[in-house]
Amino acid sequence: QQEQTLVLVKPDGVRRNLIGEVLARIERKGYVVTGLKLVEAERELLEKHYEEHVGKPFFEPLLEFMMSGPIVAARVEGHGVVEGFRSLAGATNPTTAAPGTIRGDLGRDWGAKVIENIVHGSDSVDSAERELAIWFG
Ligand code: CMP
């Protein structure tokens, strides 16, 4: 069914000039970008976005990383887009993400404390609704 998802180009992706590459892959797949902005996320917003990771060892490094530069937030629409974008993005760890995916083709391990993996995509329709409310109001 028609769905919406939240895609973030994380600070590593923006720093590496991969905004266009990520959006091009989304558009080539046939999904539609219906909201787009460049933001410097504040801690409060990120704590809400990553509430399921509170208390994990990588939580603080993750927030530091996400505050290390601007982020592109996109609302993306299409049938099955929540699962479809996760498939485009590939596995969380770019070292093992399949070639052909965003993380598999463009990501690698840089030795950081947190996994820097270029993009975020909502993991379910419910998460997408929650996350879109946080980033797009
Ligand atoms: P994301 O899809 O944005 O959701 C949580 C993020 O935390 C994830 O991408 C990675 O950037 C990071 N992450 C997840 N698991 C780990 C881990 N085990 N160690 C370090 N960072 C992680």
From TrEMBL:
PROSITE patterns: NDPK, NDPK_LIKE. It comes from the Bacteria. One of its GO terms (molecular function) is metal ion binding. SMART domains: NDK. The active site is at H120. It is an enzyme of class 2 (transferase). Keywords: ATP-binding, Cytoplasm, Kinase, Magnesium, Metal-binding, Nucleotide metabolism, Nucleotide-binding, Phosphoprotein, Transferase. It catalyses: a 2'-deoxyribonucleoside 5'-diphosphate + ATP = a 2'-deoxyribonucleoside 5'-triphosphate + ADP; a ribonucleoside 5'-diphosphate + ATP = a ribonucleoside 5'-triphosphate + ADP. One of its GO terms (cellular component) is cytoplasm. Residues 2-137 form the Nucleoside diphosphate kinase-like domain. Its main location: cytoplasm. Its EC number is 2.7.4.6. ATP binds at K10, F58, R86, T92, R103, N117. One of its GO terms (biological process) is CTP biosynthetic process. It is found in: Cytoplasm. Pfam families: NDK. Its cofactor is Mg(2+). NCBIfam families: PRK00668.1 (NF001908). Homotetramer. Belongs to the NDK family. Major role in the synthesis of nucleoside triphosphates other than ATP. The ATP gamma phosphate is transferred to the NDP beta phosphate via a ping-pong mechanism, using a phosphorylated active-site intermediate. This is Nucleoside diphosphate kinase.
